[in-house]
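Below is how a single chain appears once it has passed through the pipeline. First comes the sequence as given, then the structure the pipeline wrote out for it. We keep one example in the README because the format questions we get most often are answered faster by looking than by reading.
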Amino acid sequence: VAAVVVAVVVNGVAVFGYNNGMGRLPPMGWNTWCTDDICGLLDFCSEDLIKSVADGIVEQGLDKLGYKYVNMDDCWSATTRNATGHLQPNPHLFPNGMKALADYIHSKGLYFGLYTCIGTQTCKRGRPGSYGHYEIDAQTVAEWGMDFIKTDNCHKPSNETERDLFGQFSKALNATGRPMLFSLCEWGADNVKTWGGDVAQMWRVQMDHLPLWHFPADAAGEGFGQGTGDIIEYVGSINPGNFTGPYNWMDPDFLETLFPISTTFVESRTEFSFWSLWSAPLLVATDLRNLTTAKASIVANDEVIAIDQDLLGIAGNRLYNASSGAQAWSKPLHDGNLAVILYNANTKNNASVSVTWEQLGLAPNASVRVRDLWDKKDIGTMSSRLEKTIGPRDVGMYKFFIPKN
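Resulting structure:
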């Protein structure tokens, strides 16, 4: 299959997207990183884990909501290549090999993905990277039946740019003839938002995300920090709606929904709201098996998911950022309506958060039906402004039904 670069016009600017048949909409699914592991600290994933999560996705009907990708992070590979120079899985954790596991995932109607690295080694435990092996590795993952390839940014040569390296691997993957969704994990480096969509369907906008609200910017990459609150502030500063579109998705990193102890329900709901407003990939790194009622109320909210999966594919931008912590954000939808978030960035106190029709670009006296997407109910027909009291770190998320002239 040949990849083509498609262009859509966003805010008067052409935004390009990489189309090889995969990734028209932001991908949804699961990643191993924080399931039966502490976000990579235990360095664990296995064939049994992968199968059980795939089973859980289907048994709970999450696949019907769009959760289709079952992805492995930096945990699956053996520490050396095989005798012929090919990548190989850890034989103890994946005794039946990757092709058999891919066949199982596909039998469930799901897609299967794995992790690679653009440099000579992966970011953890010195596993083989793909530098110098782009063609053979691309052919290997294609023969295994992979549908999604995440490629990290560690141990790369200093004399080549991220754009050159990821572009080389993109070309190699496309040359296999198997459509695969290519995910760049370059941590926002090399101004990727201006070129990521030329070579891949999704690109990381900043440094790694941790299951915390705030954490210092101690990792490699762009951004203000590694917590959910830090990511919201960074994305607000770059106007992401200028860079996203079909086949071209900004990736703020995994969703850490209800990670035990360190992530609350409110923080998880806020995270899911913003990722959806940004048309970001919804790849949950925590366990999707045996969902609690609370977790299902977040990840299985079809009205919020619909905002993420909106066909227009333009990320929402921040309208204002008040010193009180009050913020308003909006996102245009393909049907001419709007998604709106009222957000309180304050960590301790409630805030009165409002948005005016003028800020939304609406006629000041327009009568607009407003629906609360988390409560799943209409809150009335309004004109001029919407104002709500929002708790700390919380959001109100709404759909505005704009009257048609």
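Residues 162-175 form the longest helix (14 residues).

See the next section for the split statistics.
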